[in-house]
Amino acid sequence: MGWEELRSECMKCRRCALAETRTNVVFGDGVKTAKVMFVGEGPGENEDLTGLPFVGRGGQLLTDMLSLIDLDRSKNFYIANIVKCRPPQNRDPSHSEEEACIGWLRRQIELVSPKIIICLGRIAASVLIDTDFKITREHGKFYEKDGIVYTAIYHPAALLRDPRRRPETFEDLKAIQAEIKRLCPETYEEKSRF
After folding, report:
1. Is the residue at 194 inside a domain?
2. Other residues' Cβ atoms within 10 Å of the Cβ of residue 60
3. What's the CA gap between 76 and 35, in Å, rounded?
4. Over the stretch 141-169, which tens digit does the pLDDT of each residue have?
5. Distance CA 85, CA 100 (A)
6. Over the stretch 88-143, which tens digit does the pLDDT of each residue have?
């Protein structure tokens, strides 16, 4: 299944109860051939209204953070979520909701074929890296699975709630930038030509 068919099928998804309360399916955004991919847990209110991931306050913080390491979703990364519909009141997605939705993300990962996936927060990391992932202890560490390097940073919403975590997140971002340069230097090549 290619991008158009995947998106079309995902937009019609009714595999879990989140379909009953959504305004929009939030499929994903960015460069579909990027070697860098970000994955969050699920859409919030602004994302549900627009159909785009990470466009609210947390999304703006993420955009600002990633600009520090020369990443821009219009140029060199793809971003998606574990679940494609907003859980009511921005609650954590349930395991059954994650299971109902994970096939969409798996296919997105296959199509993007990233060299590195950065999980945004504990929930994404517990689904993609390890079910017992502890964000406070394991953020910024790198793991390799099936030829892809994974890492996790604090979710931008968590950084809005607790700005004291920002310095360690900045250190994680610098390590991510170094890992991107090692794994897929072409991510930054366009910028260096000028």
Report:
1. no
2. 14
3. 8
4. 999 999 999 999 999 999 999 999 999 99
5. 11
6. 998 999 999 999 999 999 999 999 999 999 999 999 999 999 999 999 999 999 99
Residue at 189 is within a domain:
no
Residue 28's Cβ-count burial label (10 Å; 0-12, 13-18, 19+) is buried
Per the listing, tokens 């305004």 go with 23
Q: What is the CATH number of the domain that holds 87?
A: 3.40.470.10
- Residues ≥6 apart with Cβ < 8 Å to 10: 25, 27, 84, 104
Write out the residue range of the structural domain in which residue 81 sits. Answer: 3-182
What's the domain count of the chain? 1
Return the half-sphere exposure (C-beta side, CA atoms, 13 A cut-off) of residue 29: 16
Helix (H/G/I), strand (E/B), else coil: 120: strand
Q: DSSP assignment, residue 89?
A: G
pTM of this structure: 0.95
119 vs 64: CA distance, rounded Å: 17
CA dist., res. 122 & res. 83, Å (int) = 14
Backbone angles phi, psi at 149, to 5 degrees: -90, 130
In a 13 Å sphere around the CA of 141, the CA atoms on its Cβ side amount to 11
d(CA 43, CA 86) in angstroms, rounded, equals 5
- Tens digit of each residue's pLDDT (9 = 90 or more) over 6-49: 999 999 999 999 999 999 999 999 999 999 999 999 999 999 99
